[in-house]
Amino acid sequence: MDESLPRFAIEPETVIGEIVRSVDSSCATIDITALLEEVFCYRSQRRTLAEVLHTDAELLTSGRPEGPRTVERLIRALQAKGATGLVLPRCGKCGRQRPLTALADGRRICRSCANRRQVQANPCGICGSIDYAGRDRDGTPRCRAHPPGGDIDPAVELAGRLAGPTGLPIETAVAAIRAVARNRGGQLRLLWAFEDHPDLLSGGGAKGPPKIGALARALIDRGATGVQVPRCPLCDRAAELRLLHQGQRCCGRCWLARHREVCADCERLLPVGGRTFDGKPVCVGCRQADPFNRRCCDGCGQLRVVKARIGDGRALCSTCHDIPRARCATCGELGPCRFVTSEAPRCLSCCAKQRKEAICVGCGNWRRVNNRTATGEPLCGNCGKKPKPCDGCGKVYRVSARTTDGRALCQTCWAKHPAARQPCAACGSVERLYHHGLCAACAAPRSLHRALAGPDGQLRPELEGVYTALLRLPPHASLRWSNRRPTHRALLQALAAGTGPITHESLDPLAPAQIVDHLRALLVAGEALPERDEQLARLERWVTRTVARVPNATERRLLTHYTAWQPLRRLRRVRPGRHITVGQGDSVRMEIRNTVRLLEWLHGGGISLAEATQDHIDTWLSQGSTQRHWVRAFLLWTSRSGHSRPLTAPAHGSELSFNVIAQDHRWALVRRLATDHQLAAPDRAAGLLVLLLAQPPSRITRLTTDHVLDTGEHVRLRLGREPVLVPAPLDDLLRELVTRRRGRSTIPPSREPTWLFHGIYPGRPMDPSSLSRRLRAIGVQPRQARNASLMDVASELPAYVFSRLLGYCQQTADNWNTEASGFGPDYAADLTRR
């Protein structure tokens, strides 16, 4: 802000308050600042009043009829609040204390004296009487005995001219004329305009008075034909034609475009958006950027340009102004709309689409015109808002905010500036406000309620659990769901538009799947939904889609029966509280996928499953990889059930000792994970659990803090029935994972397991496939590394100890023990028995 300006221009409210209290001590208890904002809506009025009182403070007590009328309005408002030492100004003609609404010879006069003065100054041009009634077409004054236009009724006369071309009865045309022009003088001006230009309603409306457009719309509403609403002759746009340019009327936009002046700030030839305190013209952008033209927003408390005023007189900036909600006449969506009072409200998205498109001179792309250069060339939104040097760090960024003294700051510097922290209008906490003068914690409930509410603004009872669960998030995370991210908000609006309770089944069809899974996890962690095995549910949906590919209806029912009673039934037997692993689901997918391919291959050859022979099966198996052997279980089941001939396939062999890494490479990986502190602690701990304790990613991700037993001196990890002693530095990494309680999205549910490896969703551990990708990124192949570790452990420990320490079943431990021994003793014993 320019410090060279006088104080009454910078702080008009303070200056007026000081002057009033100095001349009248009874005003000491009156909140003059609030009174000024209530009586004078515009700050320019308060600046003018402050300048006048600064020059002559006696206008408040002398009763002289001088100065602007704002002095009188201020005195009346102060007297209503209890001021006793102020004197209302008297009329400069009659000396009475009345509202002084007119000005004569530099002094203010009342309305009666102004009327008397006007009558005396306009004698009738025919008889000389001073009974003034108006002026005729030539501008000559007329008295009541000789009124302008004579004794005719101008509305009836004009209706007679319009009745024929418009096809309306004279009575209807008279009603339309009188609805537009209520007094005789206005009706006469319309009549005279039609006498001069008869084509005003057929395309020449720009040559008539401003009310031609209103008259045309009134006639059309009453059924007139052949009537055209006047359009701007310069831009051919339907708008109010209230301004004159070169003898014809035009819209305000075209008038401004043709009445440009050089801006005193940016020195560009642009339409005048305002003037400085000393009368120099400035453009709209410079006027809004100048802190001199800003005031304190009643919503957020920051110094900004006033965007709107609400019913109680509060001035709000563009951020705090709540745009009225209505149903858009273009897209039909219910939301914030412009032109709510008109017949065609338009939402913000449709308003943006209405902007003209052109080739941006900055980037050369075809974009919507958001700005223009000094010469009027189009610019898109990105090119129109050029980055500027930040007054805080000096780097060139886009301006995020400005301080009270007008310094432009980038987003990072503004976040650190003390001016960015304001007291919340609801709770009073001093922090960065979100919107409407509220902090994030106070804005989140209102924003979330608006996102979940229906067209009537009410929340369905079935959504109470969703509302409560999302409110348990941190405030900014809740606002991301309700306001900041369109995909999240669209999902909430889809729930609000639905019917019935919110269940897992009602969430399954919604999209996008990743965001739906995130919301499902939030609702489960917030106890709005019961817990469900998501791996099993995802597998069941996949099986339904895949089985539908089978072309033969009988075989499709057969495969559906098999999957329900064989692989899926086994998975559903998982103990309560435990979920199936990713590997178990992948095994079922491999089996069903290859079975569907077999049935499709048979159908392509014109062979049904009941007609297929072992030769057909062997031919299909020989044409592909060994993964086709996964059809063995299905073929054996159909053979036993009588749905096919006796068919079989080779058993899927295990790779065990063939899919391992070398021991020297394994120990090199162990040394790297033990010493490389640049790697993330979860990656190092998971890699060491694979390389040292032979744990697969599906088990690692299910570890919680209850599995870690820390005595202070040693750390033991419960993987099987007996805890295993953890070597260094894995023990320190596990302690770090126990103490680190954070994730990408956390809420405090009452039953959330304290996972060692957090997932991206609240209440859930890391996905095993995600952990496998992270391990591969640091050079650890989970399958090969685990097999090498199992071979090493099985060669050193008995199978019984091996199973109790590492959590493997006895059969698996025996298999690995046999694999590690190389079949040597068994082969020698078999030879001795022959």
Q: Helices and strands in order, then pairings?
A:
Layout: H1 7-10, H2 12-23, H3 32-39, H4 43-55, H5 69-80, E1 102-104, E2 107-109, H6 111-121, E3 132-135, E4 141-143, H7 154-166, H8 170-180, H9 184-196, H10 212-221, E5 243-245, E6 248-250, H11 252-257, E7 260-262, E8 269-271, E9 274-275, E10 281-282, H12 284-289, E11 295-296, E12 303-304, E13 308-309, E14 315-316, E15 325-327, E16 334-338, E17 346-347, H13 348-353, E18 357-359, E19 366-368, E20 371-372, E21 378-379, H14 381-384, E22 388-389, E23 396-397, E24 401-402, E25 408-409, H15 411-416, E26 421-423, E27 430-432, H16 440-452, H17 464-471, H18 475-484, H19 486-497, H20 504-507, H21 513-525, H22 534-547, H23 553-565, H24 567-572, H25 582-604, H26 614-622, H27 632-641, H28 663-675, H29 681-693, H30 697-700, E28 708-710, E29 715-717, E30 724-725, H31 730-739, H32 768-777, H33 782-796, H34 799-806, H35 810-821, H36 824-833
Antiparallel strand pairs: 1-2, 3-4, 5-6, 7-8, 9-10, 11-12, 13-14, 15-16, 16-17, 18-19, 20-21, 22-23, 24-25, 26-27, 28-29, 29-30
Helix pairs in contact: 2-4, 3-5, 7-8, 7-9, 8-10, 16-18, 18-19, 22-25, 28-29, 29-31, 29-33, 33-35, 34-35
Could you name the key traits of this structure?
834 residues, 9% strand, mainly alpha, 7 domains, single chain
Structure notes:
The structure is a single chain. By secondary structure, this protein is mainly α. Helix 3 crosses helix 5 (69-80), helix 29 crosses helix 33 (782-796) and helix 34 crosses helix 35. It has 36 helices and 30 strands. The protein folds into seven domains: 7-89, no CATH class; 154-244, no CATH class; 260-316, no CATH class; 326-409, no CATH class; 439-525; 537-653, no CATH class; 657-826, Intergrase catalytic core (hpI Integrase, Chain A, Orthogonal Bundle), CATH 1.10.443.10. A three-stranded antiparallel β-sheet has the order 15-16-17. The chain has a three-stranded antiparallel β-sheet with strand order 28-29-30, with helices on one face.
